[in-house]
Write a structure and sequence with these properties.
3-stranded antiparallel beta sheet, 222 residues, 2 domains
Length: 222
């Protein structure tokens, strides 16, 4: 059994934003919470030494992403996590989707098409301004659709609307429009090289990239 050496280096090692940036840059990618069935996968919970790291780090996930110091994502088994800017192109190449291709192939549901086209025309736009522009069906599904589009690197949050309970919310933008250099790098890297880069990093961290991990955590098909 491989030994996850990142835990030795980082257990209880993250106490502030700068620590978190160093941690993510070191491991390359991580979930926020420990992943069920895959506890050795890099995660902020171990690095912070607490099982609920999202709550004390609630605004870290927003601020560090908006400042482009890290990239917030829901790639890992659909759970929230971070990518270093170094590894962002690799994950775009392996897990990203191109909206125009999904549209042509008929793989984008009608409600998602409506949401995507509105974002393409109006973004950056806050959720509270976006939803009233949608049809009732798309409005009801909007939160889940935004998560799915975010997971596929089609959209991303580019700002927040406030920090108080009544004002907190996300501003959405097309991911490629927000970080074009990462998408250009992903195109140059290609899916095959990106896959090898990610699996090599997992082994370097002492995490065996088993078929179950790749399918469940990274959602890679065979």
């Amino acid at each position: 059994m491989m030994h996850s050496n990142w835990q030795d280096r980082w257990r209880n090692g993250v106490a502030n934003e700068d620590d978190l940036v160093r941690f993510v840059n070191d491991v390359g990618f991580c979930a926020i919470n420990a992943l069920e069935r895959f506890p050795t996968f890099p995660n902020v919970a171990v690095a912070m030494g607490r099982p609920d790291p999202l709550w004390p780090a609630w605004f870290w996930k927003d601020d560090l992403h908006i400042q482009r110091r890290l990239y917030y994502t829901r790639v890992f088994a659909g759970k929230p996590g971070f990518l270093s800017l170094e590894f962002l192109p690799a994950f775009i190449a392996t897990n990203g989707a191109v909206a125009d291709e999904l549209l042509v192939l008929g793989k984008m549901p009608m409600a998602m098409q409506e949401l995507y086209r509105l974002l393409a025309e109006r973004a950056p736009i806050a959720t509270r301004r976006l939803k009233p522009l949608l049809t009732p069906e798309a409005k009801r599904a909007a939160s889940g659709l935004l998560i799915e589009l975010e997971r596929q690197f089609i959209v991303t949050k580019s700002d927040i609307t406030g920090r108080e309970r009544g004002s907190y919310g996300y501003v959405w933008e097309l991911a490629e429009r927000w970080m074009p250099a990462a998408f250009t790098a992903a195109d140059h890297l290609g899916a095959k090289a990106a896959t090898r880069r990610i699996t090599d990093r997992l082994r370097d961290l002492g995490v065996e990239p088993t078929p179950a991990l790749l399918a469940r955590v990274l959602r890679w098909e065979k």
